[in-house]
Design brief:
The protein contains six helices and no strands. It has 120 residues and is an all-alpha fold. The chain is globular. The model has no long low-confidence stretch (mean pLDDT 87).
């Protein structure tokens, strides 16, 4: 498919309703998917670092460092990537709550503004 795929930024994406986000996520490039999820995880870590243990921070940083477009390519080597993602998920599940994992590792998570950008 040589057709140009749309690119969307973090704020534009995460401020949309969930159903629209899911549709968009399936239409954008693997690079854009990885950038959105990595940006979200980085913002989530900044927003939550003060309540996390050193072990939890280390796992989140490992996850952030591992996020790559390969995770989102349909022609990827599925078994290799799936094993890597599953290993990271298991590490996260050992030290983070289910809610933290949902908010950290999903395009369905809640929007996290940059520090100083909070509206209200």
């Amino acid at each position: 498919m040589n057709q140009e795929q749309p690119t969307i930024g973090y704020d534009q994406f995460f401020l949309k309703p969930l159903q629209e986000r899911v549709k968009i996520f399936n239409q954008i490039s693997a690079e854009n998917c990885a950038l959105l999820i990595k940006t979200h995880a980085e913002r989530w870590l900044v927003a939550n670092r003060s309540r996390l243990t050193h072990e939890q921070v280390a796992i989140v940083e490992e996850i952030i460092g591992s996020i790559s477009p390969e995770w989102y390519k349909t022609e990827r080597v599925f078994d290799k990537i799936e094993q890597e993602v599953e290993a990271l998920r298991q590490k996260a599940e050992a030290v983070l709550s289910p809610e933290d994992i949902l908010q950290l590792m999903s395009n369905r998570a809640e929007y996290v503004p940059t520090i100083g950008d909070e509206k209200g």
